[in-house]
């Protein structure tokens, strides 16, 4: 079954609906065919302080070094987080194209 996007962040919605709990701040990255590309995670954020930002990171291993990253300014701002998420996914697509 094809996935809806060229780059899919599995369980990203779970992280949002959890209230940004660190336990849920990661997941798989799959392409539209369901092939595993690596892992996404959110780093450098405080789930109890929504006036600070954080950073989306993509790595080949769950705890591996980030290959792609994109910072966002405010955790609770859909605009800040949404723009960063869009740029983050585009960077993963660019990285994949260059492989």
Summarize the structure in words:
With 99 residues, the protein is an alpha+beta fold. It has one domain (7-98). Helices cover 27% and strands 28% of the residues. Strands 1-2-3-4-5 form a five-stranded antiparallel beta sheet, covered by helices on one side. Strand 4 and strand 5 form a beta hairpin. The longest helix is centred in the last third of the chain and has 21 residues, at 78-98. It is globular and about 35 Å long. The relative contact order is 0.18. The mean pLDDT is 95.
Low-confidence stretches: none
**How many domain modules?**
1
Instruction: Please estimate the helix content.
Output: 25-40%
Shape: globular
Kindly report how far apart the N and C termini lie: 24 Å
Largest sheet: 5 strands, antiparallel
What's the count of strands?
Answer: 5
Proportion of β residues? 25-35%
Mean pLDDT comes to: 95
Q: Strand pairing plus helix content: what structural class?
A: alpha+beta
From the alpha-carbon coordinates, what is the Rg to the nearest angstrom? 13 Å
Assembly form of the protein? single chain
What is the strand arrangement across the widest sheet?
1-2-3-4-5
Q: Output the number of helix runs.
A: 2
Element pattern in H and E: EHEEEEH
